[in-house]
C-alpha cells in the first residue's frame, strides 16, 4: 500500500506485471484449447468437404437408382404385358388346335355333304317339276292317291330323261325341318299327310280349302297366325267389311263354317281378279275397289 502511495509508476508496473501473470496463466490454459479448436475446425472443414463430395456421389447414385428403378418398373410392366399376350396366344393356339381337330373330324361329313348337294343339284329340275305338280294337283287327294300320282309323274319324268330323286318326298324337298317342328308345336299333327297339307297351305298360290272335321287345321292356323288373324263366317252381317279391311291392311283371314256354296261376292278374292291401277293391285268387290296388300292371306 505504501508503494502505491509513493510511486504511480511502480503502481502501474505492478499492475502490468500482475496482468501479465494472469494473462500468462490464462494463455497457458487457452492456447492449447485454441490450437485444438483450429485443428478441429481444419478437420471439420476437411470432413465437410468429404461429406459434400460423398453427398454429391450419393445424389448421383440415387438419381441413377431412380432411373434404374423406373427402367425396372417399365420392364416389369412390359414383362407382364408379354406374359398376358403369351397366355392369350397360348389360349388362341389351343383353340386353333381344337378347331383344326374339329374341322379334321368334320372333313368326311363335309365331303359327303358336298357330294349330296352336287347330286341334289343334278336332280333339282325333276324335283322342282314333281313339287310343282304335287303343290298344284294333290291337295284334294288322300295319301294313297298322292303316292300314286307321284309314282306316275316320276315314271313320266324318267321316260323323258329328266333326273329326279328316287324316291321323291314332297315334304323333304319343300319343308324346312325347323319350321315343321314349329308347326307341330302350334298344333299341326306330325304325320306326313298333315305336313304335306301344311306346306300346301303356306306355299300354295291358291287359297286353300281345308276339310277339317276334327278342327286340327283350325287350331293350327289360329295358333300360327296369332292375334292378327281375322275370323269370320258367312252368317256374320259385316263379314265383307272385315274382309275388305283385311285385304287393305294385309291381315290373314280364316273363313270358317262354309257350306257347299259360297257367296258370289267372294269370287274376285278367290280367283284373285286383280285390277292394276297406277302400279298397284286392286280388287273390285261389289261397287268398291279395294287396294290389295300382298300380305293378305285367306
From TrEMBL:
InterPro entries xrefs: AAA_9, DHC, Dynein_HC_stalk, P-loop_NTPase
Keyword Coiled coil in record: yes
Residue span(s) of domain Dynein heavy chain coiled coil stalk: 6-153
Record's keyword terms, sorted: Coiled coil
Domain Dynein heavy chain ATP-binding dynein motor region: 181-298
Coiled coil: 37-120
Keyword set includes Iron-sulfur: no
A Pfam family matched in the record: AAA_9
Protein name in UniProt: Dynein heavy chain 2, axonemal
Source organism of this protein record: Cichlidogyrus casuarinus
High-level lineage: Eukaryota, Metazoa, Spiralia, Lophotrochozoa, Platyhelminthes
Gene designation: DNAH2_2
Amino acid at each position: 500500500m505504501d508503494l502505491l502511495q509513493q510511486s504511480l509508476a511502480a503502481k502501474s508496473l505492478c499492475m502490468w506485471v500482475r496482468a501479465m501473470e494472469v494473462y500468462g496463466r490464462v494463455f497457458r490454459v487457452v492456447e492449447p484449447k485454441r490450437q485444438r479448436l483450429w485443428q478441429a475446425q481444419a478437420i471439420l472443414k476437411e470432413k465437410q468437404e468429404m461429406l459434400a463430395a460423398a453427398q454429391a456421389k450419393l445424389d448421383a447414385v440415387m438419381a441413377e437408382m431412380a432411373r434404374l428403378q423406373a427402367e425396372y418398373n417399365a420392364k416389369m410392366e412390359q414383362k407382364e404385358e408379354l406374359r398376358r399376350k403369351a397366355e392369350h396366344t397360348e389360349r388362341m393356339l389351343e383353340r386353333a388346335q381344337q378347331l383344326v381337330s374339329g374341322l379334321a373330324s368334320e372333313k368326311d361329313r363335309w365331303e359327303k355333304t358336298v357330294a349330296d348337294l352336287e347330286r341334289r343339284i343334278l336332280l333339282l329340275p325333276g324335283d322342282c317339276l314333281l313339287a310343282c305338280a304335287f303343290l298344284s294337283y294333290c291337295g284334294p287327294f288322300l295319301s294313297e292317291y298322292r303316292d300314286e300320282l307321284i309314282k306316275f309323274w316320276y315314271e313320266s319324268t324318267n321316260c323323258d330323261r329328266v333326273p329326279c330323286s328316287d324316291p321323291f318326298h314332297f315334304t323333304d324337298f319343300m319343308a324346312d325341318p325347323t319350321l315343321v317342328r314349329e308347326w307341330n308345336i302350334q298344333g299341326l299333327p306330325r304325320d306326313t299327310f298333315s305336313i304335306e297339307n301344311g306346306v300346301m297351305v303356306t306355299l300354295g298360290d291358291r287359297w286353300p280349302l281345308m276339310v277339317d272335321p276334327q278342327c286340327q287345321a283350325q287350331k293350327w292356323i289360329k295358333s300360327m297366325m296369332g292375334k292378327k288373324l281375322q275370323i269370320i263366317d258367312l252368317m256374320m252381317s259385316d263379314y265383307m267389311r272385315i274382309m275388305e279391311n283385311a285385304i287393305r291392311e294385309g291381315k290373314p283371314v280364316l273363313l270358317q263354317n262354309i257350306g257347299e256354296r259360297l257367296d258370289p261376292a267372294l269370287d274376285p278374292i278367290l280367283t284373285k281378279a286383280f285390277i292394276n291401277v297406277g302400279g298397284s293391285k286392286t280388287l273390285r268387290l261389289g261397287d268398291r275397289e279395294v287396294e290389295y296388300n300382298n300380305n293378305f292371306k285367306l
